[in-house]
Structure formats: C-alpha cells, structure tokens
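Predict the holo structure. Ligand: pyridoxal-5'-phosphate.
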Amino acid sequence: MDFKPYLKKLTPYPPGKTVDEIKRELGIEGPVYKFNSNENPLGPSRKVVKVIKELAKTVNLYPEASYIELKRALAKKWGLSPENFILGNGSNEVIELVFKALINPGDEVLVSQPSFLMYEKFAQIYGAKVKVVPLDNKLKHDIPGLLRNLSNKTKVVFLDHPNNPTGSVLDRKDWGIFFKNLPENILVVIDEAYGEFIEDPEIPLGIEFLKNGFNVLVLRTFSKAYGLAGLRLGYGMAEKSLAQLLDSLRQPFNLNLFAYKAGLIALEDQAYLKKSLKIVKEGRRYLTQELSSLGFKVYPSQANFIMVDFGSVCEHLYQGLLRRGLLLRPLKPYGFPNSLRITIGLPEQNQLLVKNIKELLG
Ligand SMILES: Cc1ncc(COP(=O)(O)O)c(C=O)c1O
C-alpha cells in the first residue's frame, strides 16, 4: 500500500505513564505519586463529579451540537462573543484544526525547541515543514531567532506560554518586538495551557493581543487548573472568521456530553479554581526553594511544574524515585538528559518528594 511519504518518519507522542502502567511495569504495590503529566493533584471538583453522575443516565442521547451554552459562558468570562470560540476535545484538537484549516503540504510552521511536542507531531501528519528555533540561554522563546527564521512560506508560529517543559514566559518587551516585526498574515498560536498559573502581573496574556486586533489564536484548556484532563476539553479564542472556520472543520459531536456540561460547572466553581491555583503557587515556591538549596538548578516557572537540572545524579534520582513510586518526567526526549520536569503536587506530596530526594542523595 502507498502510505503518504511524509508519514514514514512519524514517531508516536511519548505520553506520561499512568499509575496502572507503572504498577504493572515495576511491580509497585504501594501508592504511586504522579509528578509526571502536569495534572491537577486536587482531584476533580466535587460539583463536576456530581453532574457527571447525573448525566450518566442520559448517555443514550447525543449532546447538543452547537455547544452554545459553554461558548456563552466563556464569552462572558473573557469579554468576547460566542462566535470567537472554538471548543475542542482537549486543546490538542484545536491545534490539529489549525493544521486542517491553514496548512498545505510544504508550508512552514515555526516552533521553539523544546516546546509542546504536539505542534511538530501535527506538522508531520499534515506534511508541513517544521522550522525549530532553540530557546534562548534563559530557556525562553528566542524572539530574534524566531523572527530570523520566518520565510514567505511561514503560515503559523506556535508559542506555548508558559513554555512546556521549562515554565518560562515572555515579558511585554519581548512580545512587543515580536509583533512589531511579524508579517500580519502569519498566525500566532499562543498556547496558554498553563496560563492560569501565571503569577507575574507584568506578563501579558494572549487575550490582550486578540482584543488589540493581532492575528492570534489563544488556546486554553480545562485539563490543568480546572482538573479535567481525563474529560478532554479545551478551547481556542480568535477573531470570528478564523474561529468559525475552525468550528466548521470539527466533528459534529467533538465534545462528549460529560465534557460539555462539566466545563460549564467547572467555570462556575470558583472555589475549586482558587484552591488549585493556591496549591500550585505555594508548591512551586516550596519546591524551588528546597531543590535550589540542595544545589540543583531550578528554572523559574510560571506553570504548574518546574524543570530541574539534576546534573550527574539525574538518572540515579529518577530511577530511585521511580522504584519508590514517585514518578517524574525525564526531559531526555526534549533534549535535556540531565533534567526532570516535576508537576507541583499537594503540599504533603511535595514534602514527600523532597524527603525521598534527600534520602537518595545519602
Ligand atoms: C503546552 C500544552 N499545550 C496543550 C496541551 C494539551 O492539553 P489538552 O489537550 O489536555 O487540552 C498540553 C498538555 O500537556 C500542553 O502542555
């Protein structure tokens, strides 16, 4: 059979391991702590669980295909109109819709390295040429480097902000230089999967650029701050004609009933969101302090994870923690063999992690 030639080099996305996988593979009987996939350690909102239980009785019916209630609620939250929104089966799906809508084989997309791996993955699937620009020496998006790599074939620039896996962000000056020098026809996808965790008030958010008329698609997800990773719900905000085009390309029922209704409840549950942000911000400070005081390089992060350079003891710590049921994310696939990414956990989980690291260091 003749497969598409550009699919031959495709490698699968390396997802973080689940608790069951780890227990099976390593024969661990006790608890497993997930510091590896940037999930919410609080568990889901109780209000969401309640509505899911109620909805279970109606899964014989299709959901309402327009998803208008959730679009209206989001429009109210952001001061936009429902036509500015595209809802996706995770923000991942919205990323794919960008390729469906804009990319012809041979077009170029620009991504930082490292950044969220799915931009490159979809580029491979849709036959786009990927230009990768290394992060700068502070592990931030390299704005001059990105601008230097633009060409007349560039269609989209993907910027995860905060960046995954470093947690770095750009300041107003960086963004200013970027937009001043970027041709207007190039779409900038500002992926704010971790946007809720940005603490620094000086860091601009994508919504500001959208409202000021720049050619941007701002992505948000319910997987992180709202604790709904398993339901798969994310969205994009864009100027109406782009949002409507993306909406016309999705499957008719791309959100399942649970995700659609849970999204509405999660948006209302401000107490859950507040608690989840507090845990991340305090835990981020705690882990940064503790691991820095052990002599490791902790990169400044505005996300729900930190990247830590453990130097020569990285593999020893990773394996040792794994055997004890503490699961971290190795950053070798991202080009950092001596670094691990640690999702911020509950306070007692963070303390347990530090205690185990100290023990393994002897
Ligand atoms: C930067 C970034 N963007 C997008 C996603 C996808 O999130 P989801 O598809 O769960 O909304 C992730 C997931 O980890 C991510 O790290």
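The chain has 13 helices and twelve strands. The pocket of pyridoxal-5'-phosphate is lined by residues 38, 90-92, 116, 160, 164, 191, 193, 221, 223, 229, 234 (CB under 6 Å).
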